[in-house]
## 1
Amino acid sequence: MVREVNEGSSELNIGGRFLAFDRPQFFTIFVVLAILATCMIVYYVKQKKYKVNEAPKGFVLLVDMYVGYIRSLVIEILGPKFEKLTPYFLYLMSYILLSNIIGIIGLENPTSSLTVTLSMGIVTWIGTQVVAFKYQKLSYLKTFTFGIKNKKGNKIPLMINPLEVISCITPLISISCRLWGNIFAGGLVVSLWFYFLGYVSQNVPALAMFNLLAGLTVAPIHLYFDLLCGCIQALVFTLLTMVYWTLAKGEEAVEQSESNVVVIDKKQPVVNKQVLVK
C-alpha cells in the first residue's frame, strides 16, 4: 500500500513498515535503468538480424565502437587478464554517463545524490581490496605497518602506520565526492540561472513575453554542465576505478602487465625490442 505523506512524496508499505521515497533521484534511477535495458534489447534484436559477413551500421555500429573502446581501456590499463570485466566497466560507464546527462530533459540527476555516488565508490573500494589480496596475498597487510628489514630483506611489521590506513580510505571518499560535487554543483548553477531568468522576466516588462536572454543562454549552459561535464565525469570515474585496481596489484604485477612480451619462433624476424626470442 502506498500512502501520500506530503506534496511530491509518498511511502510504500512493506511488511507493516513504510519506506519513504520522496527524493526525485529515486524515480530517475528507474528511468535510467529502463533506458539502459531498452538500449540493450534494441541492440540485441538488431544485431541478431545481421548476417555473418554483413558489416554493422547505424545503432549497432555505434554500440560496437563503444564496447570496443571500453574493452581497449580495460586491456590497456588493467591487462588482458581483466578483459572479462569489460561488461562491468561498460555498464558502469553507461550508467554514470546517462545519469549525468539525463538532466537535459528536466529530470533530476541520480548522481547529484551523494548516496548514489557513495554506493558506486564503495563497490570500487571493495574491488580494490579484492584485487590487492588476490595479487599480493597477505603481504598486502604489511603495507599498513611500520617495520624493519632483516638480513634477507624481508619486512618485519612492528606497528600500524596510520598514514597508510588513511590513504586506503581516501580513494573511497575522493572518487565518490568528486562525481557528486561536480554534478551537484552543475545542477545548482543551472537552477540558479533559471531562477535569475524568472526574476528578470517578472521584473522587466519588456522581457515578459519574449526573454531573449533565456533563449541564448539556456542551451549552452545545458550543453556544458549536463553534456560535456557529464561525459567527462563518467570517464574519470571509470578510469579511476581501473587505475585503483591496477595499483592494487602491486609493483611486480603492474610491471608484468605493462610489458607486452611476445614469444616467437627462431625463424620469425624480430620487429620489436620487447619481443622475446625463444
## 2
Amino acid sequence: MPTVPHSPESQTNPPSAASPPKTTATLDGPPLPSMAVSATTIVVPPSVPMVSLLGSGDEILRLVERELRAHVLVRGNEIIISGAPADNAFAVRVFDELIALVGQGGHLRPDAVSQALHMLRNGATERPADVLSLNILSRRGRTIRPKTLNQKRYVDAIDEHTIVFGIGPAGTGKTYLAMAKAVQALQAKQVNRIILTRPAVEAGERLGYLPGTLYDKIDPYLRPLYDALHDMIDPDSIPRLTQAGTIEVAPLAYMRGRSLNDAFIVLDEAQNTTPEQMKMFLTRLGFGSKMVVTGDVTQVDLPGGQRSGLRVVQSILDGVDDVAFTHLSSVDVVRHRLVGHIVDAYARFDAENADQTDGPLTGLSYPSQGEHRAPPVEVRSAGPGPRATRRTDAERPDSAVRRGAAPPRR
C-alpha cells in the first residue's frame, strides 16, 4: 500500500531580535523553543473511514496520543502532527501503519494498536500492518491471526519447517495458533487428518479414582483441545469428523507404536512429557506429516522430580535441519493484561531465588534444596541365577527400623 501523503509545514522562522522566541509545551520534558517545532499533515484516504481509524469515541486516538510525544490534531480527514521532527516522524509511521491496517480490512483494537506501537518503538524489521493482518482462519465473522511479532514468526516457522516447537508462558497462543494452522492445512487438503494429543498428567489433582469409563477419566485432560476446535470448526461436524478419524484427540500414550502419515500432529503441554516420551512422540513422524510441539517449561507437573522432555529436547535437536524452536514471552500474552504481569512476577521470583534451588521454583521439575525423597529400591544380583534380593527395611538409610522406631505393619 502506498505511503499516506503527508506534508511537513516547517515553523523554523528565526525570531526577531526585538522579541524572545516563543515556547511550545510538549507532553514530556521541558518546553521546546518554537524554532524546534514543526508540523506534519497526514491526509487519510477516502477509503479509510475515520471512525475506524480513530475508534469509537476516539478511543484509538487517545491511546495513540498517550504514547506519542508529538501533539495530534484531527480536522476532517486530515491528521496534523506537531512537535520535534523526530517525534513527528515516529507519529507519521504509527498512523501510516494504522491506516494500512484499516485499509486491508482490519479492525483496530486497543491491543493491536499497542502491539504496533511496541514493534515500531523496538525497531522491528517486519511492518506491523503485515504482522497483524495475516489471516489464518475465518469463521462466522471471526478471524484468527497472529497478534504479536513472535506469534507471526511462530506461524511462519510452522509453514517453513516439518517439526516446530512453540515454547512460552501461558496465554501466548501457542496451542491455539497451532490448531488453527492444523485446521487450515486440513481445509486446504495439505493433510488428510488432524491428531491432537497431550500427556495425561495431573496438575496436583487425582482424577484416576473418579467414576466412569476410561474415556470419562481422560476427557478432562483433552477438554481444552475440544474447546479450541469448537472455535474453528462447526461444532455439529466435529463428532462426524471424529468418528471418521479425520480428527483424533487422544492421550500421548496412545501414540506408541504408530506411524503417522499425511497428518498434522499437535502435542500440547509437552513440558509434562519425559525425555523417553518425547523421543517416542517425535519418532512417530511419517511421510507428508507436520508436527507442532507446545509447552511452558515453567509449569512442569511431572511427579517425583522427573526431567521434562521439553527441556531436554532443546539441547538434543538444536541445529537439526527442518526443526525450529520458537520462543514466546510475556510480551506475547494475549489474555487479560494481568497475565503478562503475573508471568513477569514469577520470572523475577525465580531469578531472585535461583541460588536456593536446583531449578525454577515455579517449574516443578526440580526439587528445592531441603526436600527429601526416599531413595529408589536397589536391586542386587544374587549370583548367576535369575533371583535377586531387595534391600530390607532395616537396610535402608531412612528406615524406621534404623531410626529405632517400630517398623510399619504390612
## 3
Amino acid sequence: MRDVPGSSDPLIDEMFATTHRLRTYVDGRLAEKGTSVARLRALRFLAHTAEPMRMRDLSDMLGIAARTATSLVDALERDGLVARLPHPTDRRAHLLALTDAGRSRHQEAEDLDREALSTATGALTAEDRATLRTLLGRIRDTVDAAPKHPQPAGTTPGGRQSE
C-alpha cells in the first residue's frame, strides 16, 4: 500500500512523522516506570507550581479538555501520585497537589524523559540543534502572525471539542 501524505506539504508530513515517532519512543521508555508523556506533563505542571492548582488550570496548561484532564487526574490519584484537596473558599471545588509518591515518580519520569530525548537527538551537533530551533521558531512566529480565522463553535483553540 502506498503512503498517503497527511498534508499538502512534505515538510509538514516529515515534522508530524518525526513528532509521532519521538512521542511513541518516549512513551515506550516512560512505560518502563508506569507512566506516559501525558502523565509526565501533568506531573510536571503540578511539580512546578508553588501552590495546589485547580483542575481547570491544569486542563488549560495542558491544552486538553476538562473531561480529559479529569480522567488523567483520576488515574494519577488512583496510583497515589496526586491528591485532591478541598478548595479553601469554594466547597464545590478541589485543588490538585502531588503526593510524596507523585514527586518521586515525577523525578523518575523526568530522568527517563531526559535520557530518551538525549538518545533521540544524539546524532545532532550543537550547530544542528541551534539551526533546527531557529527554523522551528520561524515557523511558530509565522503562524502566530498569520491572520486568525473564527473558531468553530464547540471547539477549544487547539481544535478540540469543548465541554
